[in-house]
Amino acid sequence: MATRNDPRAMMVDLLLEKVAQDPFPSNTMMDLIEALIAPDEVPAYAAVLMAKIRDDAFPSTSMIKRVVELT
């Protein structure tokens, strides 16, 4: 979570929460996260996506590709 008064970090946190809660997060939200994310925030984002992949019987190929691109 954003601990400082940084609008960029606060928006990343907000979008991460939305993506984590939504069973089918929009590509737009994930694109915005990827445009705004700082290197130290990548592990949290990757963890959210990997949890979605793990919990889905038929995970989205595009979500898997997003995680691969983060590595």
When the domains are counted, the total is: 1
Q: From the helix content, strand content and strand pairing, which structural class follows?
A: mainly alpha
Task: Give the helix level as a range of percent.
Answer: 55-70%
| Proportion in β-strands | under 5%
Number of strands: 0
Overall average residue pLDDT: 93
| Structure annotation, total helices | 4
Poorly predicted residue ranges: none
The largest pleated sheet is described as: none
From the N-terminal CA to the C-terminal CA, the straight-line distance is 22 Å
Overall form: globular
Radius of gyration: 12 Å
SSE succession:
HHHH
Structure description:
It is a single chain. The chain has 4 helices and no strands. It is mainly alpha-helical and 71 residues long. Helix 1 (7-21) packs antiparallel against helix 2 (27-36) and helix 3 (42-55) packs antiparallel against helix 4 (61-70). The longest helix has 15 residues, at 7-21. The mean pLDDT is 93.
Structural topology:
Blueprint: H1 7-21, H2 27-36, H3 42-55, H4 61-70
Helix pairs in contact: 1-2, 3-4
Summarize the structure.
By secondary structure, the chain is mainly α.
Write out key terms for the chains shown.
single chain; 71 residues; mainly alpha; 69% helix; globular
